[in-house]
Design a protein that fits this description.
CATH topology: TIM Barrel
Helix content: 25-40%
Shape: globular
CATH superfamily: Aldolase class I
CATH architecture: Alpha-Beta Barrel
Strand order of the largest sheet: 1-2-3-4-5-6-7-8
Number of helices: 10
Order of helices and strands: EHEHEHEHHEHHEHEHEH
Largest sheet: 8 strands, parallel, barrel
Bound molecules: 2-phosphoglycolic acid
Strand content: 5-15%
Length: 250
């Protein structure tokens, strides 16, 4: 398989939305400038500081992204942010279908698909998140859930260039628990197979692992077959730990 450029993405969630976010972006930039990692780095801050963070990393290889977008380009949708607005704020990526959105905002696969499509319309790479709950894993339904989410959440027109898949077992997010290496390998191999027919050039599409990735477990997770990067929550909120993950990526 062709070498895919590893993507290390920081999802700040509802944190670092002010001066602290600008400081974090500056610290990541300064660390990345000193070390020049071979992986690609992506920062997904809260929407209110996206433009400022994009400005900080402008001209560097560090990319920025939104954490969500509305399916429409504009209109009467109080509090929502269009993919086009993220692009105007300097983003080149947008995360869609994060399990916290699926739970907190009752987002279905159809909604996630529409948001991914909106990202593509705005010229953004959509990072489409999928993953099973603990109850689903315990019931032996993990692969079936991934199949269903892939079928429902990936829009027509998806390609290796405009789409990244993030496998995030819901029970591993923010818990310090991770699946075994064998479980990660099984899920990622399954995803690679299932995206065939849904994404143009499935072999070239990056599949990230997310859920309690830290500097000290990243190397092991990132060398699993079909793991092409990481979506990092908690450990992306400090430059040192985020850069430690980038370092582990080689
Ligand atoms: P975590 O979050 O790294 O804090 O587990 C990952 C995510 O939700 O993207």
């Amino acid at each position: 398989m062709a070498e895919l450029k590893t993507l290390i993405a920081g999802n700040w969630k509802m944190n670092a939305g002010g001066a602290d976010g600008i400081a974090l972006a500056k610290a990541v930039l300064s660390g990345a400038t000193k070390e020049s990692f071979s992986c690609e780095l992506l920062l997904c801050p809260p929407a209110v500081v996206l433009a400022a963070v994009s400005h900080v990393v402008d001209g560097s290889p560090i990319a920025t992204g939104g954490q969500d977008c509305h399916a429409k380009a504009k209109g009467a949708h109080t509090g929502d942010v269009a993919a086009e607005m993220l692009a105007a704020a300097g983003a080149t990526y947008v995360i869609v279908g994060h399990s916290e959105r699926r739970t907190d905002h009752k987002e279905t696969d159809a909604i996630v698909r529409a948001k991914a499509e909106a990202g593509h319309r705005a010229g953004l790479v959509a990072v489409i998140c999928i993953g099973e709950t603990e109850a689903e894993r315990d019931a032996g339904e993990t692969l079936a859930v991934l199949t269903r989410q892939i079928a429902g959440s990936i829009p027509a027109g998806a390609s290796a260039a405009n789409t990244v898949i993030a496998y995030e077992p819901v029970w591993a997010i923010g818990t310090g628990r991770t699946p075994t290496i064998a479980e990660v390998a099984e899920a990622h191999a399954h995803i690679r197979r299932e995206i065939g027919g849904k994404v143009a050039e499935p072999a070239l599409t990056r599949i990230l692992y997310g859920g309690s990735v830290k500097a000290d477990n990243a190397a092991e997770l990132l060398k699993v077959a079909n793991v092409n990067g990481a979506l990092v929550g908690g450990a992306s909120l400090e430059a040192a730990s985020f850069l430690g993950i980038a370092r582990a990526a080689g």
